[in-house]
Amino acid sequence: MGLWDILLGRTKPVAPDLDQLFGLPSAAVTLEAGAGFTPTGEGAVCFATVEGAAFEQTHREVRALLDADAERRGVGVELRRDEYGYSWLVSRRGPGELVSLVNDLHAVNSAMEANGFGPQLLCSVAGFREAGDGAAGTAGRRLGLVYLFKRGTFYPFAPLGGGRRDTALELRVKSLLAGELRMEDDLGRWFPVWGAPGL
Question: So what CATH class is 14-189?
Answer without folding.
Answer: alpha beta
